[in-house]
Amino acid sequence: MSDQAQGPGWWQASDGKWYPPQTAAQPFPSTAQGLPVASAANPGSGDLEAGKQTPWYERTWVLALSLLFCFPIGLILLWVNKRFTPTTKIIVTAVVLALALIAGIADSLSPPDESKEAKGAATSEAQTTAKPTTTAPPATTSKPTTTAAPATTAKPTTTAAPATTAKPTTTPPPTTAPPPPKTAPPPTQPALSVSEQQAVRAAQSYLDYSGFSRQGLIDQLSSEYGDQFNVRDATAAVDSLTVDYNAEAVESARSYLEFSSFSCQGLIDQLSSQAGDQFTVDQATFAAGQTGLC
Fold first, then answer.
1. What is the pLDDT of residue 289?
2. 230 in a domain, yes or no?
3. What pLDDT, in 10s, does the model give residues 91-117?
4. Does 281 reside within a domain?
5. Which residues span the domain enclosing 267?
6. Which parts of 64-207 are beta strand (E)?
7. How would you label 103-134 residue by residue, b for 16+ Cβ within 10 Å and e otherwise?
8. What is the Cα–Cα distance from 42 to 8, expressed in whole angstroms?
9. Residue 167: pLDDT band with limits 50, 70, 90
10. DSSP 56
11. How far apart are CA 96 and CA 102, in angstroms?
12. From start to end residue, where is composition biased (Low complexity) (predicted)?
């Protein structure tokens, strides 16, 4: 290497130096050489992986709260979590489902709410039992009054025969109208059986949800696809309720008009047909008129 060529064959490199023949300039080392490469054998290569955060749905506290308050979501999070083995997932799933099954059986075996049942029976009995009316005692009549005899005057010169006194007149007692006969209170309905009381509760639930005719409500309670009460219990339960079936027909008519189109006669036929709501024709006509369709 020289600042000037020393003979034939010398060549000038990019750094301005002259080199003898068959001599190549050594390349500068790359800045990338000598740097550690992240690999499985390099202990430092796992630093980036160690810095990764666990997803929120794989955290233990999220899984525990999900299983406690909404176990279907908790089971889903359990099975997508890769930190648990299949055996652990199966055991936890079995325990959670067993607890849910036990809770459901205990809830179905709990006795009905006696206070609500007694309150409903008292209300229905109060509605059907009228207070007997009392009649006022007849007015007393006053005693008859007697008039005094008129005074007699004697003639001045002759003695007259003693004057006769007129008989006192008596006024007849006023006639009073006979008191109205006492009306017997209506007979109270016999107490409902336990099955009939349950049918009453079911009927009230149906009436709170939708409009029903009398026959439609009895069919719903006694149908094998409904509550499966016998027809006698269903009829007794429906008849023990005080229901405005005209208002129920109006509610059913408005429900039909919200989901479909009807003519006036078509709506009446739907409400009164045996395949429909089984209202009477008068109730169906009243309901159609209340909707403004007729």
1. 93
2. yes
3. 888 888 888 888 888 888 876 655 556
4. yes
5. 245-294
6. none
7. eeeeeeeeeeeeeebeebbeebeeeeeeeeee
8. 51
9. low
10. G
11. 10
12. 126-169
